[in-house]
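Please fill in the sequence for the structure shown.

STRUCTURE ENCODING:
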C-alpha cells in the first residue's frame, strides 16, 4: 500500500487548516451558505436532506487495519455509530455536526486519508478491481497506476472546474470487476507484442442519459498515460457543454461530437502535452509500484478449510458465494457481505469495522478492500484460516453468504438521506432481501444482480442491474420503474425499461414475480437470469409483471 511522503502529509494538513478557517467563518456568519458551498464541496462536504454529509475517499478501495479502525472511530465519535460504503468505494458519514468536520478531517489525516475531490466538478476518486493483486486473471496489479492517477489529478490546477464531475477506473484483466465501461474514462492494462500499455475507453456513464464507453485507443504505451489523460481532459474542458448541466458529462460530449472527432482533437492535443513530460511520471510510477509489492505469502495446509466445508453446510454455502480463488496456492479472497437480509446495503457499524480491521491484520496481511458493490474484502487469506474468519464474522452479523445473489443489492441512500432523491431506496432493498430470505430461494435462483436508485442520477447503478429499479416522483407519489438486462461486466449493457412503474407497496411483489418467472423459464439450473433474459427477451418477463392473471396467481 502507498504511504504518504512529507509532501503528501503537508499538503493534506494545509488543506485541512484552510477548511477549518472556512468552517469557522461559516459558523460565525462571515460566509453565507452560497459562499460556503463551493468551499465545502472541494472538501467532500455535502448538505443533505437532514444534515451535512462527509464523503471520505478510499482510493481504489484499498484500506489497512489502521485506516478502518479510524473510520470506525469517526463513526462512533462524530456520527451515529456507522458509516455507509458507496459505489465509488468511498465511505459517507450522514450525521456530522459542521463544527466537528475539521476535527474529522484531521483524524483522517492521521491515517493518511482525506475527503479531497470526493465532490465537485473535478476528477473524482479513482477506482479499480477489488481483487487487484489477488486475482488469478490479471496481468499485473492495477493499483499503482490508479495511485499515479490519483496523485496527478489531486488539486490539478487545470481540472478543478470541469464542465461536470469526471470518473476514472483502472483494471488489468479481461474480466471487468470495476464497471469500467460505465466511467468517463476506463483504462484496461493490456500487453501487445511484449509491451504493457492501456486500452482507453471514453464516454461511459449512467444518470439521466446512460451510455456505454467507446474505445478511444486500442493501445497506449505506458509512458504516455498521463499526457494522454491530460489531452482527454483538456479537450473535454474546452468543448464540453457548460450551458446545461444535464448535457455536460463527457459522454454527451462524445455523443454530440462523435467518437472520431473526439479522437482527432485528443490526438492533436496529445503531442503538446507529451512534450512537457520528461520521465518524472515514470520514475514516480516505479516508486509507487514498489509500495504495492505482494505480501509474503505463506505455505500452509488447506485441509482445515475443506474439512470445514465437509462438516458444516452453513460454512460450505457461505464459502461457495463469498470465497474467490486466489492467484497464490493455498489462499482465497474473502468477500464480507454488508447486505445481511433486512439491513441497509453498504452500512457498517463501528464494531463491525473494528472486527474486519482485526481480521485483516490477523489473517489477511493487513490488506482490506472496499468494493463498488458496497461490500468489504480480505483479499489475501490462507484457506486454512478462513473457517476462523467465518466464525468471527458470525459474531457481529457479517457472515451472510449472499455475494452475487439476489439480496446482494446495490442501493443508494435514497430519500432517507439524499436531498436529490425522489423516492426511497433503502426500504425497497430491505423489503426485497427480507422476502427472499422468507422464501429461501436465493441459492436456487443463483447469480442475480439487483440495483436500486432513488433518482435519475443513478448512484445505485440501476441501469446496469440484471434487474434495475429506479424510484421517481409521480405527482407526489413514489413510483418505481423496472429495467431488465443490464450488465455491469466486460459485456456492459444498459437495461431496458419494462413498462409502467409500480407503487411503493407493489415493487417487492413485482420483483418476486420476475424471479419466479425466471425460475420457470430457464433451460437449466446453470442458466442465469441474465442469460435467460438475453435468450428469450422481454416479453415473458413483461407478462409476469403486468398480466392480470399472473398477478392474481401470485397473490394467491
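FILLED IN BY: designer on duty
SEQUENCE:
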Amino acid at each position: 500500500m502507498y504511504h504518504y511522503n512529507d509532501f503528501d502529509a503537508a499538503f493534506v494538513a494545509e488543506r485541512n487548516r484552510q477548511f477549518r478557517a472556512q468552517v469557522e467563518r461559516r459558523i460565525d456568519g462571515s460566509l453565507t451558505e452560497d459562499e460556503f458551498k463551493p468551499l465545502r464541496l472541494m472538501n467532500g462536504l455535502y448538505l443533505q436532506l437532514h444534515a451535512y454529509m462527509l464523503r471520505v475517499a478510499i482510493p481504489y478501495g484499498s484500506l489497512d487495519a489502521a485506516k478502518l479502525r479510524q473510520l470506525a472511530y469517526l463513526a462512533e465519535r462524530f456520527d451515529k455509530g456507522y458509516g455507509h460504503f458507496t459505489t465509488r468505494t468511498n465511505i459517507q458519514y450522514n450525521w456530522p455536526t459542521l463544527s466537528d468536520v475539521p476535527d474529522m478531517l484531521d483524524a483522517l489525516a492521521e491515517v493518511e486519508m482525506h475527503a479531497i475531490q470526493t465532490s465537485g466538478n473535478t476528477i473524482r476518486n479513482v477506482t479499480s478491481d477489488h481483487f487487484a493483486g489477488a486475482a488469478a486473471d490479471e496481468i499485473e496489479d492495477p493499483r499503482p497506476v490508479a495511485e499515479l492517477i490519483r496523485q496527478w489529478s489531486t488539486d490539478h490546477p487545470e481540472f478543478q472546474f470541469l464542465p461536470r464531475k469526471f470518473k476514472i477506473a483502472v483494471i488489468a484483466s479481461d474480466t471487468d470487476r470495476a464497471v469500467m465501461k460505465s466511467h468517463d474514462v476506463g483504462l484496461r492494462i493490456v500487453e501487445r507484442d511484449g509491451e504493457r500499455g492501456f486500452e482507453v475507453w471514453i464516454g461511459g456513464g449512467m444518470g439521466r442519459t446512460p451510455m456505454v464507453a467507446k474505445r478511444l485507443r486500442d493501445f497506449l504505451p505506458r509512458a504516455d498515460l498521463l499526457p494522454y489523460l491530460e489531452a482527454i481532459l483538456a479537450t473535454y474542458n474546452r468543448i464540453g457543454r457548460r450551458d446545461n448541466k444535464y448535457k455536460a458529462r463527457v459522454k454527451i460530449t462524445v455523443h454530440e461530437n462523435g467518437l472520431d472527432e473526439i479522437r482527432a482533437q485528443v490526438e492533436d492535443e496529445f503531442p503538446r502535452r507529451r512534450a512537457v513530460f520528461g520521465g518524472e511520471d515514470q520514475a514516480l510510477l516505479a516508486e509507487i509500484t514498489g509500495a504495492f509489492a505482494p505480501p509474503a505469502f505463506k505455505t500452509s495446509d488447506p485441509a482445515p478449510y475443506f474439512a470445514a466445508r465437509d462438516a458444516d453446510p452453513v460454512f460450505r454455502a457461505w464459502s461457495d458465494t463469498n470465497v474467490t480463488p486466489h492467484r497464490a496456492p493455498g489462499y482465497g479472497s474473502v468477500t464480507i457481505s454488508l447486505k445481511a437480509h433486512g439491513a441497509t446495503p453498504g452500512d457498517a457499524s463501528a464494531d463491525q469495522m473494528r472486527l474486519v480491521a482485526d481480521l485483516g491484520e490477523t489473517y489477511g496481511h493487513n490488506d482490506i478492500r472496499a468494493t463498488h458493490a458496497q461490500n468489504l474484502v480480505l483479499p489475501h487469506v490462507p484457506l486454512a484460516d478462513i473457517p476462523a474468519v467465518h466464525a468471527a464474522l458470525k459474531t457481529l452479523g457479517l457472515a451472510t453468504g449472499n455475494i452475487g445473489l439476489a439480496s446482494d443489492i446495490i442501493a443508494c441512500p435514497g430519500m432517507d438521506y439524499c436531498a436529490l432523491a425522489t423516492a426511497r431506496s433503502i426500504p425497497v432493498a430491505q423489503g426485497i432481501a427480507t422476502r427472499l430470505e422468507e422464501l429461501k430461494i436465493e441459492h436456487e435462483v443463483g447469480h442475480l444482480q439487483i440495483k436500486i436508485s432513488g433518482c435519475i442520477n443513478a448512484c445505485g447503478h440501476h441501469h446496469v442491474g440484471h434487474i434495475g429499479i429506479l424510484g421517481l416522483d409521480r405527482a407526489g407519489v413514489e413510483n418505481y420503474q423496472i429495467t431488465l438486462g443490464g450488465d455491469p461486466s466486460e459485456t456492459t449493457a444498459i437495461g431496458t425499461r419494462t413498462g409502467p412503474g409500480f407503487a411503493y407497496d407493489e415493487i417487492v411483489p413485482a420483483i418476486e414475480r420476475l424471479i419466479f418467472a425466471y425460475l420457470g423459464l430457464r433451460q437449466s439450473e446453470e442458466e442465469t437470469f441474465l442469460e435467460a433474459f438475453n435468450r428469450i427477451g422481454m416479453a415473458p418477463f413483461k407478462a409476469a409483471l403486468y398480466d392480470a392473471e399472473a398477478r392474481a396467481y401470485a397473490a394467491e
